[in-house]
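YM 10:42: DUF402 domain-containing protein sequence, as discussed on the call
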Amino acid sequence: MLWRYRDNADAGRFHICRPMTVVQDTEDLLAVWMAPGTACVKPVLADGTPVHREPLSTRYTKPRRTTRDQWFGTGVLKLARPGDPWSVWLFWERGWQFKNWYVNLEEPRRRWSGGVDSEDHFLDICVYPDRHWEWRDEDEFAQAQRDGLMTDARAAEVRSAGRAAIAQITAWRGPFADGWEGWRPDPSWRVPALPQDWDRAPDRLRS
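YM 10:58: structure's back
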C-alpha cells in the first residue's frame, strides 16, 4: 500500500509517497512497515537542494518539486488508529536496538484503494524507551503559521491533538504499551515497488 502526504501549500498535489507492507489492518489499527532501501518520493527545492538544508525563514516559500529517492538506514513501523490526528512511528538502531517512538501529528488518514492519504501538521512528539517525551519541530510549526500554511485555528487544533497524544503517553496506553518495539518483519518479505502513477487521484475514499 502507499502512504502519501499532500503538499501543505497545494492540497491537490502529493509530495511524499512511501510504499509500505501491511502488517495489520483491522478496525482498531493499521500497522505498516517501510523497509530499508524502499523507493519513495520526497520534496526538494526546485534546484534539488534537500528541504532540511534550506534556512527555516525560506524553507516553505521557495519553489519545490518532487524527486525519487530511497529510504536509507533502518526501516520504520507506522501505527495508526482510525480517526486519530496522528500516527506513531517506531525507529530502531542497527541490530534492532529500539530507539524511540515518534508521534507524527497529521490529518486523520483517508483510505482509498491504493493506500492512505494525509497531510502533515509540522509539529511532532518524540517518546523514548524510558517513557519521557518532548515536543519536536516547534520551530517548523511556528514558521508554517508565519508563512500562511496553517491558520491560527488549525494550529490550535494541532496543539490540542498533541496534548491528547501526550495524555496517552503519560498514561502509557496503546500503542506505546503494546509491545510493538519487539516486533520484527518477516525476512521473506519483498520490498514494495513505487508505482509510476504514485500520485494518481485517490478513488473510493473512505474513513
